[in-house]
Each structure stands twice: as C-alpha cells, then as structure tokens.
C-alpha cells in the first residue's frame, strides 16, 4: 500500500538506492568535519553524523520494496 503510493508519487527504486548511498557519503563528510571542530561542538557534530548514518538501511529497504512492486 505504501509502496504503491510512493510509486504513484513518482519515486523509483534507483532513487531510493541513490539516497541511501548519498546518506553514507554525507555521514562520512559530517564525521570528518566533526574532527575539525573544537571539543565543545564535536559531540553534537558526531551525533549528527551518527544520526544520518542510520538512514541508509531505511532508504535501501524502501528501494527494495519499490523494486519488488515494479
């Protein structure tokens, strides 16, 4: 039901897989950037990178579900 809605909206499996790969890259960039900050801001920046690091499996599974429905 949800995948049919996403497909009707225009999302395709390759877009969701690309979003997963992009979020991995964004996580790495934010993690490297966190190492350049001072100690007071570093904790928040690392938590932000870890939070974004949780997104790839979600995007990948949504992409797989869309691929199955196609």
The count of domains is: 1
Order of helices and strands: HHHH
Cα distance, first to last residue? Answer: 13 Å
User: For the CA atoms, what is the radius of gyration?
Assistant: 15 Å
Task: Give the DSSP E fraction (strand runs of 2 or more residues).
Answer: under 5%
Short description:
This protein has four helices and no strands. It has 70 residues and is an all-alpha fold.
Characteristic terms for this protein:
elongated; 0% strand; mainly alpha; 4 helices; 70 residues
How does this model look, in words?
The protein has 70 residues and is mainly α. The chain has one domain. The protein has 4 helices and no strands. The chain has helices at 2-9, 13-34, 39-53, 55-69. Helix 1 (2-9) packs across helix 4 and helix 2 (13-34) packs antiparallel against helix 4 (55-69). The chain is elongated, with a radius of gyration of 15 Å. The two termini are 13 Å apart. 7% of the residues are buried. The mean pLDDT is 92.
